[in-house]
Amino acid sequence: MNSKKILVPEKLLVEKICVLGLGYIGLPTALLLAQKYSVVGVDINEKIIKTLNNGNLPFEEKGLNKLFEKVRGNFSATQTIEPADVFIIAVPTPLEESLKIADLQYVRSAAEMIAPHLTTGDLVILESTVPPCTSENVVIPILEKSGLNSNEFLFVHCPERAIPGNTLFEMINNDRIIGGINEKSSNTARYVYASFVKGSLLITDTKTAEFVKLMENTSRDVNIALANEFAKIASEMRIDVWKAIDLANRHPRVKILQPGPGVGGHCIAIDPWFLTETSTHAQMISLARAINDSMPNHILNKVRNILRGVSNPVITLFGVAYKKNVDDWRATPALRLIRLIQSEGWDVRLYDPFVRNFPCTIQTLHESVLGTDCIIIIADHDIFQEIDPSELRVRSKNIIDTRNSLKKEKWKNEGFAVYTLGDGTSFHSG
Ligand code: SAJ
User: Fold this and answer.
1) Over the stretch 38-85, which tens digit does the pLDDT of each residue have?
2) Is 374 a catalytic residue?
3) Of all atoms in ligand 1, which is nearest to the CA of residue 379?
C-alpha cells in the first residue's frame, strides 16, 4: 500500500487541492480554499480557463473579484487534472428533461478523470447535487477503478448551500453537511472546510447528506408553489395576496414565500425531480413543480386579456435572468414565456442589463420598448426602479409586474395601466 501521507486528521497534511468544475459553485469554493492551500481549478471549457488565466472572471458574483486578486498566487486554472491531496467535484447535474431524471454524465466523467490520479489516503469530495445513493452506487465504483478500494481513499458528499448573489458570504457563514463514508473521511473533510467556513460543519452519512440537500431545495419549491397557488386563489377573491402573505408571516410559525413568474435557476427547478426519480411515493413534489411551471401560462392569459383586439401585438420582457440582480438565466421562466408568446404569433422583445449569451436577442431599454404594447417584469432587478416611464416610446401603456416590485404610482402617473400578479384587483385570468 502506497502510504503517501499521514492520515491522522488532527495532523493532516493537505497541500494541494484540485477542484473539478469552475462554475458558480466550483470557482468560489476554489478561491476560498486558495486562501490556505495550493488550488488547481479544472474545467473542460477552454474559454473559462483562458478567461481566468488572463486575470478575469467568467461571471460576476459579489466579492469574487477581490478574492481572486488576493489568492491568484495560490490558484491556477487548467483543462487537465493534476495529482492532489483532495479532489472536489463541483460539476453540474442537469435534468434529463424528457425523463425527469438526473443526468450524471458530468459527475461520472469527473470521477473518471480523478480515478487514475487517486492514491492512498486522498480525499474526494462530491459537492454536486445528486439523487440519493449516487455516491455509493455511481461515484465510488468509478473511483475504485484506480485499483484502490473505498477503505483506502476517503470520500464525502458535501452539498453546497450558497445562494447565487450572496455566494461568498453564504459559503463562509452557512452551516454545512458533511456525509462521509467513514469517520476519517468526514473528519478530514471537516478539517479542509474549516479553513474558510465559520458555520457549523455537521457530520452524517453520504446518503443522508444527498437527501438533506434535495429536501432543502424541494421544500423551497413546494413553498413557492403554495405562494403561487395562493396568488391565483386571492385573485379570484379580489384579495391582495402580497399583503395577505405579509400578515400571515407575522404568525411566529408561518413563513410563506413570494409568488412570481415561476421558478428558475439550476437548483430549485431541477433538484425536486431527483427525489421523484428515486421514489414511488412522491406526489406533492411533482404537483408543486407543475404549479410553478404553469406560471408563465397564467401570465400569458393575462396578456391575452389586456391585448384583446390589438393587431400584431408587441410584448417586452424586463429581466430574463432567473431572479433579481443576477446574470444567470439557466432554467429562467422567461424562456417558457417567450416561447408561449411566440407561439401566439406575437413579437417579443427583451431587456436585461445583466444577462449575456442568452439564446434570444437582448436589446437596450429604449430599443426593447419602442412600439411595445405590454411590458412584463420577470426578474425584478433593482436597476429597473431607476427607469423613467415618461421616456419610454411605447405603443400602449401596459405593464405587468409579476414580482410586486414597482412603485405603482410612478407608472400610473405616466398613464400606464399596472397589473400586479395576485394583487386582487388587476390580475384576473378570466
Ligand atoms: N422564487 C420565487 N419566490 C420566492 C423565492 C424564490 O418565485 O419567494 C424563485 C426565484 O425568483 C427563482 C427561483 O425561485 O426563479 C429560485 O431562486 P432562489 O433564490 O429561491 O434559489 P436559488 O436557486 O438561487 O438557490 C437555491 C438555494 N436553496 C435554498 O434556499 C433552499 C441555495 O441555498 C442553494 O445553494 C441553491 O439553490 C443550490 O445551488 O442548490
Assistant:
1) 999 999 999 999 999 999 999 989 999 999 999 999 999 999 999 999
2) no
3) 11
Ligand 1 atom with the shortest distance to the CA of 217: 31
Pocket test residue of 95, 268, 289, 325 for ligand 1, highest count of atoms within 8 A of CB = 268
Per residue in 174-214, pLDDT (tens digit) is: 999 999 999 999 999 999 999 999 999 999 999 999 999 99
Residues 180/189, Cβ–Cβ less than 8 Å: yes
CB atoms near residue 223 (< 10 Å): 15
**Residue among 158, 267, 323, 374 flagged as catalytic:** 267
Judged against a pLDDT cut of 60, whether residue 5 lies above it is answered with no
User: Residue of the nearest CA to atom 29 in ligand 1?
Assistant: 217
- Asked whether 178 and 189 are in contact (CB, 8 A), the reply is yes
Query: Hey, what CATH class is 222-430 in?
Result: alpha beta
Q: Which residues contact 69 (CB under 8 A, 6 or more apart)?
A: none
Neighbours of 276 (CB within 10 A): 19
- DSSP H or E segment with residue 400: strand 398-401
- Confirm if 214 and 134 have CB atoms less than 8 A apart: no
Structural fold of domain 16-204: Rossmann fold (3.40.50)
Q: What are the residues whose beta carbons fall under 8 Å from the beta carbon of 130, sequence distance 6 or more?
A: 93, 102, 104, 107, 138, 139, 157, 210, 274
The burial of 184, by beta-carbon neighbours within 10 Å (0-12 exposed, 13-18 middle, 19 or more buried), is given as middle
Between the CA of 101 and the centroid of ligand 1 the distance, in Å, is 20
- Residue with the smallest CA separation from ligand 1 atom 35 is 161
- The number of the ligand 1 atom at minimal distance from the alpha carbon of 161 is 35
CB 118 within 8 A of CB 124: yes
Identify residue 120 by its one-letter amino acid code: T
Q: Average the pLDDT over 271-282 and give the result.
A: 93
- What is the per-residue pLDDT for 307? 95
Which residues does ligand 1 sit against, CB inside 6 Å? 129, 160-164, 216-217, 220, 224, 257-258, 260, 263-265, 267-268, 322-323
Q: Which atom of ligand 1 is nearest to the CA of 165?
A: 24
Spatial CB neighbours of 401, under 8 Å, sequence gap ≥ 6: 377, 380, 408, 418, 419, 420, 421
Q: Is 267 considered catalytic here? A: yes
Catalytic residue among 18, 158, 213, 232: 213
Question: What is the structure's pLDDT at 426?
Answer: 76
Q: Where exactly does CATH 3.40.50.720 map onto the chain?
A: 16-204, 222-430
